[in-house]
Specification:
Elements lengths: L5 H15 L3 H15 L5 E7 L7 E8 L7 E3 L3 H9 L3 E3 L17 E9 L2 E10 L7 H21 L2
Antiparallel strand pairs: 1-2, 1-6, 2-3, 4-5, 5-6
Helix pairs in contact: 1-2, 1-4, 2-4
This protein binds methionine sulfoxide.
């Protein structure tokens, strides 16, 4: 059998983690640590959650690993983060300097992926990963980050935040 790729290894570790923890919060904390620690191009990894009942709707920073960001609260009409949450679609930006929606977190960031989290069919938050490398989020990585968002969404449905 060929040796497993880093992405495959991390994916199975995440699956085990999701089985082992008892809340979505615990999973999110452990997930950002694991992704940031093991995936060499994932230089900032964090969750934003939709504030319950907020009008206008607001994304609020939750578990994260990497440098503190100035963007702790993001309205849905701002940033790559706002675009992913309001459309319910994954957004991949290969070169953030070319995307007028981009809100800078670190001057070193070159590319970014934001994947919405769904619970009971509704967007409840998102997983955001920034890289110091351009075009870091190839289809293989999009798959991994989307898998992570799915695991957290399931946990939110079964165990709550
Ligand atoms: N770059 C994001 C803001 C969040 S920071 O990257 C952590 C955006 O454009 O929405």
């Amino acid at each position: 059998m060929p040796p497993a790729s880093r992405v495959e290894e991390v994916r199975s570790e995440l699956d085990e983690l999701a089985q082992a923890v008892s809340s979505a919060q615990e999973l999110m904390q452990a997930m950002v640590k694991l992704l940031h620690g093991r995936m060499l191009k994932y230089n900032w990894v964090g969750f934003y959650m939709l504030e319950p009942g907020a009008q206008p709707p607001m994304l609020v920073l939750d578990a994260f690993e990497g440098a503190m960001t100035p963007h702790v609260r993001i309205p849905l009409n701002q940033g790559i983060c706002g675009a992913a949450a309001s459309s319910g679609q994954t957004v991949v930006v290969d070169d953030v300097s070319k995307d007028p929606r981009y809100l800078a977190c670190s001057l070193e960031t070159k590319s970014e992926i934001v994947v919405p989290l769904f619970a009971h069919g509704k967007v409840v938050g998102e997983l955001d990963v920034d890289s110091h490398f351009a075009a870091a989020f190839t289809p293989e990585h999009q798959d991994l980050v989307q898998h992570c968002a799915m695991l957290v969404g399931k946990k939110l449905e079964t165990s709550g935040h």
